[in-house]
Amino acid sequence: YPNVPPGPPAVPILGHLFALPSTHQWKTFANWSRDYKSDILHLSVAGKSIIVLNSLQATNDLMEQRSRIYSERPRLPMINELMGWNQQSLAMGLMPYGNKWLARRKIVQQAFSKQSLMSYGSQLEKCTESLINDLFVQPSEFMAHFKRMSTTFIMSTVYGIEVKAGSGDPFIGANEAAVDGLKAAGIAGRFLVDTLPILKYVPEWFPGADFKRLAREWKENMVLAFRAPFEEAWSQFSNHTLQPCLVLNSLDELGVDNADDSDERINTVRDAAGSIYTAAVDTAVSSLATFLLAMLANPEAQKLAQIELDRLERLPLLQDDASLPYISALVKEVLRWKNVAPLAIPHCVAEEDEYRGYKIPKGATIIGNIWAICHDDAIYPDPDKFSPERFLGNNPRPDPDVAFGFGRRTCPGQHLATSMLFLCIARILAVFEISKGTKLDEFGREVDDEPSYEYSSGLAAMPLPFKCTFKPRALANEMI
Ligand code: HEM
């Protein structure tokens, strides 16, 4: 590869396949940048180039300034073809750049823009009230409550469907199974078929072809996750009983006639809705769990946040953000400190390009290393420390917008995610004191159960299980 950016030594043919770690690649990429004294790296796997961008400068110059050519998605045979994630359109996050993608993206962007925030604000407030209630009743199940809160919100705002009480809701089960498959398959190098696409023709019964069975099962889950809630909403739409929601607005706006259900416009709405559902739930759960870990790691931040909240003397509302600067800074720090999507979703460059004298080959996978940027000590000194103060005062550090990705592919749920985090965090801290869980030591004494602060790997990082105690604060009864 003449004149491409530097990178670690490669072996013939397979390139860096075996040098790529199977977990937490973002850290290895950042270390390689240090070792090879370059914020852009070139790797190759079986003849395909991968360019890793480890600095804000490089992601700005290429993925933002030149977004016209840096907005494609690479094709991964396991996810795209065998699991069908973009074979029949469906998930817009994995769709090729083009008109179909744009039509879906417009729907999501419009529904969750900053301006439309107030139209779904009351629903968000209702869901976070239930969350607080659930945390009172069964605090140890906090992860399940986070999931329930975000699913209930998405199902009602997107599909106009009320989630069934208890754990047996069929739509939640379908979404969970689909996202689990995507997360597992999103681990780079996990499936050899991504490196050697020819393997996709191996029959399922062939020894070692277990990936084909997994792909088939995951595909069934994914189709169900996209189709099942949409079909329910569609049948209500046809009967004129569908409650106001994204599906209703979009079908109305596109002028869809309820007699005609074979329309491409219907697929567009189905895909936009399904893309939200699969992208929003786990990201919310992971970042809320990160917030709890942050409170365990830095009790001082919790105290300062509560001093600010107590001045309100009531449960916070969405429009309180201007009067709660510490909480707003805390939300930014949650997004920066541990990233839900440390390597975003890979982009792909549509044309050959040149940058700082290096060649960027056409079709190369482009990875923006969100984690490396959010932990760059030139931008965020002492990056491993959880410190909302870095976004306050006379010299605030830049907002970590990069946590939501790059250029034309940036997360269209950014405003929704930030508002959801703001409201949940403000309300939880107004009502509860958060502290470490406990366990019995070998002498039967109660001691703190220290979290590992470790995360799973894959497309979306989730904190490994940890314990946490929620103690109602003195003001809790007055506030609710
Ligand atoms: C803390 C919460 C969230 C974080 C950190 C996050 C982060 C990201 C990142 C890094 C990407 C990839 C961007 C890129 O390729 O450059 C992405 C894509 C996407 N996100 Fe989010 N996200 C969050 C919540 C949400 C929510 C609530 C929604 C629901 C509307 C959503 C919908 C999407 C969609 C549809 C895409 C694909 C965009 C495309 O390919 O055009 N996300 N998100």
UniProtKB/TrEMBL annotation:
Heme binds at residue 411. GO terms for cellular component: membrane. It is a single-pass membrane protein. Pathway: Secondary metabolite biosynthesis. GO terms for molecular function: heme binding; iron ion binding; monooxygenase activity; oxidoreductase activity, acting on paired donors, with incorporation or reduction of molecular oxygen. The keyword Cytoplasm does not apply. Its cofactor is heme. Keywords: Glycoprotein, Heme, Iron, Membrane, Metal-binding, Monooxygenase, Oxidoreductase, Signal, Transmembrane, Transmembrane helix. Pfam families: p450. It is found in: Membrane. The keyword Isomerase does not apply. Belongs to the cytochrome P450 family. This is Cytochrome P450. It comes from Mycena indigotica.
